[in-house]
Amino acid sequence: MPDNAAGRREFLRTAGAAAFTASFFTGNLRGANDKVRVGFIGVGEMGSANIGSAAQVPGFEIAAVCDVRQPALDRAAAQAGKLGFDGVRATRDFRAVLSDKSIDAVCISAPEGWRASMTVQACQSGKDVWVEGPACAHVEEGPRMVQAARRYSRVAQAGTIGRSGQVFRAAREVVKSGELGEILFCRAFDHHPSGPGVHLLDMLQGAFDEAMPVSVSAQGGRFRSVGRGETPCTMLATLRYPGFVASYESRACAGDGAGYGVSFHGSKATLMVNAAGCVLYPSGANARPVAERGRMADSRAPHWRNFLECIRSRRRPVGDIETCVRATTTCLLSDLALRSGVTLDWDEKAFIERRLKLEV
Q1: pTM to 2 decimals?
Q2: Is 61 exposed, middle or buried (0-12, 13-18, 19+ CB in 10 A)?
Q3: What tens digit of pLDDT does each residue of 8-28 get?
């Protein structure tokens, strides 16, 4: 870990305490019986999934749905009605949701280019925020999202639902336990056309206390059109962290059956994490799985449950916005390194100092 790791942990601890104290004196603590009214901004596939998950958690009330596409808006309003929520407001203007003082929190599942701006505006409007990952579309947007959450003492949960799952916790525990020995190499791979890259890097970096790479280089193949932009069909990024090196492999073609995963390679054993769970492989010519840690299960509803608990307590959620911004930034740096053809350096100290300014 970098020399300033202890300083970062201390900042996170003290900032969390300050946010809790500020919320206590401004009357933001909510009782266990208080309904938290949520507005859903962007109600396509992910937005609809979030509506369904939030409805599974007693304590949330679906208050509004918002989308610029009328068919999606109509479907979301009908979905909320079928789930038992009457009088749901439907609007095509997200500003109407943010200005509604009866709404306590928003779920932002709009396209990536809108997420940073909407998150900042939601925090300024006094709303707690759930925002899908990737958190933003540009590197410079991430710190502003973190700054807004801290400055306005908002609970900002990212849609990195793996953090509420058994597999994420098991993987982190194994890495932290020393069972793998000295870890010198990690691999994150994603073999889906539109895969979970940010979730994989979130797991990798979360296992090392939110480590960030000190340099990123990448190579890859042709690009394909996605919406109004382009994304690489194949990419192999080399991420150099303090103490170890990692690769991030993304390809939009037929996979090898595993689909996606993260592996941690140590001097004593290797930990493989994918949809099947966590499996430990000891080193040696006759290596075979010896222990299975956790199973992959739907963690979206538990993630929403954690969001509700933190809205009531004003504590940091398990998928706090800063953790998602770090994983998103690593993805963006990989893409920039591929497009520019140069190795990019990342200054962790500058990132922390910029965030500490709390200028929104």
Answers
A1: 0.86
A2: middle
A3: 444 444 444 443 333 333 345
